[in-house]
UniProtKB/TrEMBL annotation:
SUPFAM superfamilies on file: NAD(P)-binding Rossmann-fold domains
Similarity comment: family membership: Belongs to the short-chain dehydrogenases/reductases (SDR) family.
Protein name in the entry: NAD(P)-binding protein
Family annotation (Gene3D superfamilies): NAD(P)-binding Rossmann-like Domain
GO molecular function, one term: oxidoreductase activity
Pfam family membership, one: adh_short
Keyword list, A-Z: NADP, Oxidoreductase
Species the sequence originates in: Lentithecium fluviatile CBS 122367
Length: 364
């Protein structure tokens, strides 16, 4: 029998089942939600902003690009005929700037709270990690890891502030698989922007790859415990998508392959924001393709119209940690379980005595 520690761990994980992408959601479920998004002035961010505002949400955009952010807010307000989008200047690498963004967003919120926070701001640029520059100097100067600051430190700041403001959202309840999207607008939802580079290495971009792996680690860890604050956390992992972020050089390298589309990222993000029953899940977004799936769950690329095929750009990576789906984890977790079983209740009791002694400063 598993020890109380193992039982407690399993009970602590709150994750909804894999998303069935054949079941539709209603974008109108975002109506009346208040959504804060970083980096919302262009790319996916702007796509989210337009779609959510059109469907009745109020969106507060924090971005360093004042020109694009202001123009977007004015344009969408005109289109929707209401104060659906607000722009606030924010540099996500600056703690105080993010603090101000969140405070301003709460002031602008028609109901005085935030239902969803989207940590979307990100950059890609030539990476210096493996390029220290002038090789003739005695020692390289201290580097500025800008990609890490925006794509990781910025995300941590956003996450920290989300865990302060989301639980305070007036009228919101703890997140639940049994919530009723469309009936209850109040929510506590953090949506993280990872990348396929969260799941796989990315050549010549080690800093970007490491930062996005870090976002994945953040997501996997948070989803084990975010429910303690009633907050649900989800993750989007796009493949290369047709935005300004994909440089001409990358486009040359990718030529002949497929780029994903902003509309499909918006579809994935809207499902997460709209459907409050989705807890701790991730979606990968790639080029739209026709596929079939065999009995072992393997996907096959097929021609349009092939019997049993469907068209999709979205994929569930099925990161069901506690089912030990990853090969290494499966083996390693088995060993850990075996250790726990071998030590049994006696081992548990010894450890508990040690833990109490440690807390009292009696045991080191
Ligand atoms: N486009 C892709 O292929 C792709 C693939 C995977 C993941 N992503 C991720 O998706 C997110 C959005 O990317 P995108 O393709 O829409 O890029 P984008 O360049 O079109 O948009 C990024 C936005 O972030 C803003 N921004 C940059 N630095 C900022 C800072 N310090 N503070 C506040 N805002 C800042 C920019 O001004 C811009 O509006 C990023 O996190 C990116 O890493 C993109």
């Amino acid at each position: 029998m598993a020890s109380p520690t193992a039982q407690g761990l399993v009970a602590a994980i709150r994750q909804s089942p894999p998303i069935d992408l054949t079941i539709p959601y209603d974008a109108a479920w975002v109506k009346d939600k208040v959504i804060l998004i970083t980096g919302g002035a262009s790319g996916f961010g702007a796509g989210f902003v337009r779609h959510w505002a059109k469907n009745g949400a109020t969106v507060i955009v924090g971005d360093v690009n004042v020109g694009k952010g202001d123009a977007l807010a004015r344009e969408v307000q005109k289109e929707t005929g209401r104060k659906s989008v607000h722009f606030v200047h924010c540099d996500v690498t600056d703690w105080q700037s993010q603090v101000n963004l969140f405070k301003e967003a709460v002031k602008l919120s028609p109901h005085g709270g935030l239902d969803t926070v989207v940590a979307n701001a990100g950059i890609a640029q030539p990476d210096i990690v493996q390029n220290p520059g002038d090789m003739s100097v005695a020692e390289p100067p201290k580097p500025k890891f800008k990609i890490n600051e925006v794509n990781w430190t910025g995300v941590l700041y956003t996450t920290h502030l989300a865990f302060y403001w989301l639980p305070k959202n007036p009228g919101s309840k703890d997140c639940s698989i049994n919530s009723e999207p469309g009936k209850q607008s109040r929510d506590r939802h953090l949506l993280l922007l990872g990348s396929l580079a969260s799941l796989a290495p990315i050549a010549v971009q080690p800093q970007y790859g490491a930062a996005k792996h870090a976002v994945l680690g953040l997501f996997r860890s948070l989803r084990m415990s975010s429910h303690l604050k009633g907050v649900r956390v989800n993750l989007i992992c796009p493949y290369f998508i047709d935005t300004n972020m994909v440089t001409p050089g990358a486009r040359v390298l990718l030529a002949g392959g497929g780029l994903g589309k902003v509309e499909d990222v918006v579809d994935a993000g809207t499902r997460f924001v709209a459907d409050s029953r989705i807890l701790g899940r991730s979606l990968v977004i790639g080029p739209k393709v026709h596929v079939t799936q065999d009995e072992e769950g393997q996907w096959h690329y097929v021609e349009e119209g092939t019997e049993g095929s469907r068209e999709t750009a979205l994929w569930e990576p099925c990161a069901d940690d506690w089912e030990d789906t990853e090969a290494f984890n499966r083996g390693f977790v088995k060993i850990l379980h075996a250790v726990q079983t071998a030590r049994g209740w006696t081992g548990w009791a010894v450890d508990m005595v040690k833990a109490v002694g440690n807390a009292l400063g009696l045991v080191r």
